[in-house]
Amino acid sequence: MKPISRVLLLSFGLALTACNAGDVPRATIDGPSPERACFIPDTVRNFRPEGDARVYVRAGRNEVYELGSGFCRGLSSARSLALSAGAGGGRSCVGDSVEIAVSGPGLQGENDSRCRARVVRRLTEAEIAALEPRLRP
Question: How are strands ordered across the β-sheet holding 97-103?
Answer without folding.
Answer: 46-50, 54-59, 63-68, 113-122, 97-103, 80-85
